[in-house]
Amino acid sequence: MAIANSSNSSNSSNSSNSSNSSNSSNSSGLFGQAELALSGGQSSFLLSDALDTTAKSLAGEHELPEGAIELLNSKVTAPRRLNPRHRMALIVDALTDGIEVQPGGDGAVTLTDRAAPVAEIALQRDTSQAWIEGFWRGQVAQVHAMKWNRDEQLSEIVLQQTDILSFLSLPVAIGSLTHERTLILFEALLNATFRIEARIKRQFSLARPAHLASDINPVIQTPAHSSFPSGHATEAFCLAMFIELLFFGGAKTEAVRRIAERIATNRSVAGVHYPCDSVAGAALGVALATTFMRRLFRIGGTTPPQWTAQVTHKETPDDADLDLSLLPEAWQDKLTPGFAGTVTAVDPGSGDAARLLAWLAQGALDEQALG
């Protein structure tokens, strides 16, 4: 169990999901081996020493080839030639540029993309009000009741700390040899989503279930950051939307969404999240997915519509609301996106960020062909 505990320490909530999700290029991970490898083998002291010996055996005067100095006037800009970690940082910057997180009124946090609304998520915690106290008692009770389901889902709970993509990709044939660019895209989405959700979590800073009740007894390390909204739910539903777009023509796909919901629910079964965390996270994930899609793809020749997450928390919500007080109603039915039309990559444009995103989007689309 030492392995599980070591990964708990970072809780890989979420950002480190991205490093496992893209086995195609763990080269983009900070300590990945691929970017250090030489042409014929992995880097090692022995190989470097042998190469040094061979290099020193080559006789001849040092001389620059004719015209070599002129290379200083050129730039290496092709995305495929960039160091994977540097490329990933640039892609994530391009995906998140212009997205702002701000506190709103009445316990809400707002998310905007260049001032246009992306999400408004409310959470009430003034337990001097009877209905709010009752709500939170109910949330803790639900987490406690889920404790008895852990034996059936424990392997999922442990593995999904750092890997959600293996589960989400069950309905599709995807791998590092056939879908390298797609996996780079998914890793970028996970990193970008984590960057946004971390800022939202900071605004809410909600205590975890085990902080309230000593009999929750989580079976994985309780993360040190805010419980609300769930990062696993946010990332799972964001990726689910892209899997639907790339592999199912944008149509709502029950299997993919059920897996995303199961990943989210497993966090409550584990004892580290309230059910309401997952509802808010799922809505945020869908909203972020449409925001990122607008930067990457065109559907039917037009920019995809922005789906705005409106998560309310009221004593007497309307049935149409995606309201935390309506749990455990079928909240997935209120996550509406599903797209129809031919999917194409964005125009590369003239800026470096636009070219990077177009390269990523076109590569992911090209990999969907079987030829």
Descriptive labels:
single chain; 371 residues; alpha/beta; Vanadium-containing Chloroperoxidase, domain 1; five-stranded mixed sheet; two-stranded antiparallel ribbon; disordered N terminus
Description:
With 371 residues, the protein is of the alpha/beta class. The protein has a single domain, classed as Vanadium-containing Chloroperoxidase, domain 1 (Up-down Bundle). It has helices at 2-8, 17-21, 45-56, 84-96, 130-146, 150-159, 165-168, 180-204, 209-212, 231-247, 254-269, 275-296, 352-366; strands spanning 99-103, 108-113, 116-122, 297-299, 309-312, 322-323, 343-345. It has a five-stranded mixed beta sheet with strand order 1-2-3-5-6. Helix 8 crosses helix 13, helix 10 runs antiparallel to helix 11 (254-269) and helix 10 (231-247) crosses helix 12 (275-296). It is globular, with a radius of gyration of 23 Å. The two termini are 43 Å apart. Residues 1-13 and 15-31 have low confidence and may be disordered.
Distance between the termini: 43 Å
Helix/strand/pairing category: alpha/beta
Integer-rounded radius of gyration = 23 Å
Arithmetic mean of pLDDT: 86
Could you estimate the helical fraction of the residues in percent? 40-55%
CATH class: Mainly Alpha
**Count of helix runs:** 13
Q: Give the H and E element order.
A: HHHHEEEHHHHHHHHEEEEH
Total strand segments: 7
Number of domains: 1
